[in-house]
Write a structure and sequence with these properties.
The structure is a homodimer.
Chain A (H helix, E strand, L loop, with lengths): L7 H10 L6 H13 L5 H8 L8 H13 L3 E4 L7 E4 L4 E6 L5 E5 L9 E2 L2 E13 L1 H7 L6
Parallel strand pairs in A: 3-6
Antiparallel strand pairs in A: 1-2, 3-4, 5-6
Helix pairs in contact in A: 1-2, 2-3, 2-4, 3-4
Chain A binds a DNA duplex through α4.
Amino acid sequence: MKYKNYTISDIKEMLTQQGIKPSIQRMKILEYIVKNRNHPTVDMIYNAIKFEIPTLSKTTVYNTLKELVKKGILIELLIDENVIRYDMNISPHVHFKCKICGKIYDYDMNCEIFEKKEIDGNRIEKYNVYLFGICKECLKKGDGRHGN
Amino acid sequence: MKYKNYTISDIKEMLTQQGIKPSIQRMKILEYIVKNRNHPTVDMIYNAIKFEIPTLSKTTVYNTLKELVKKGILIELLIDENVIRYDMNISPHVHFKCKICGKIYDYDMNCEIFEKKEIDGNRIEKYNVYLFGICKECLKKGDGRHGN
DNA sequence: TATATAGTTGTAATAATTATAAACTTGAAA
DNA sequence: TTTCAAGTTTATAATTATTACAACTATATA
């Protein structure tokens, strides 16, 4: 899946367009996510940015991410049992997680089920699709044998 | 979605077939899940069963669920941000969660994407599909208006 | 400059889950 | 029946992600 290259002014605009004041903390947090596209946890973001903003508080990371999710810029990935990961909100968009190395891959997947707006009378507003298995690199290393 | 009616000896057999000794704790835990089909959390299970087994420890509930997931009898639902829910492993099987009342519905959903065994060279072993929106009952109550 | 508002920070509180070790059960062997 | 070992359950403590909160800081406007 190919990603758009975001400049710093793209990032600023994403924030202001949603009515979020582009503070240095918020810009760095969002920049980290759009530049890396590595489905980071709060800790990953915090540890990556604290060198640039030494006073950064983890609470700010939590607050910012919650705000960005609410505005629809980011989505939460509930793909790990014990921690929330974050990604750009680019839909429709599915995630594959390797059970060996833990890496998460993004894929476009257009399918008629994503077009459905209701099921059994319930109104569908959002789909989360997670795939699990063994990624191509781990298959190559281990040949996918021995219970891999 | 229609559920099978499980008897107590069905439950015992599910455990023994997987090489799990059918202790009273394990049988009651599994029975609660198969009889209720309400996607319970650890706390829901613990609180429901502790009257029948007053010495029950929450650790036993955690241990048992972990074991049943490993054996493939149950699946974990990562549909809430802060707690793991459990359900029978009946596939293919998707979950809808209402953002108003929180209720989770089960649906069969056969779709050609669930047949895919690989994507971009990655071997797919499992799909988790979560739908979010407003359920039919909440739509009826609120007419689905006012930002519902 | 003064002041109000929004944003950030550090600490403490909460809550789910896991680790650990002791106590208990069970069933087979002596 | 007694003994013993393996497996199971229990209670407590530890860990960890997340949230609550109150003090502090920066910013924008009058």
